[in-house]
């Protein structure tokens, strides 16, 4: 299974990248190890979300912009409402990045 670097810009991905950068700068780990850790992070995040998350969410909002490039959709919504089974959350602006998981399963 392949992986995309979608989760590196998440809060946890940025934290991991910052920590790895600091360790490489201090000489604690070699740069190649940092790259391997990031590649494993990409793979593990995809696998965890696919196998562990079962919640369904619906959302509604004003679609400001959308793009489709390299099999990745990007949606920018304003005044969006997200609904799960027992919770409703309103946000002023949100960026949604989505890709087809089937493209990750294709051999390279």
UniProtKB/TrEMBL annotation:
It comes from the Eukaryota. Residues 4-49 form the Transcription initiation factor IIA gamma subunit N-terminal domain. Keywords: Nucleus, Transcription, Transcription regulation. One of its GO terms (molecular function) is RNA polymerase II general transcription initiation factor activity. Residues 60-101 form the Transcription initiation factor IIA gamma subunit C-terminal domain. CDD domains: TFIIA_gamma_C (cd10014), TFIIA_gamma_N (cd10145). InterPro entries: TFIIA_a-hlx (IPR009083), TFIIA_b-brl (IPR009088), TFIIA_gsu (IPR003194), TFIIA_gsu_C (IPR015871), TFIIA_gsu_N (IPR015872). TFIIA is a heterodimer of the large unprocessed subunit 1 and a small subunit gamma. It was originally believed to be a heterotrimer of an alpha, a beta and a gamma subunit. This is Transcription initiation factor IIA subunit 2.
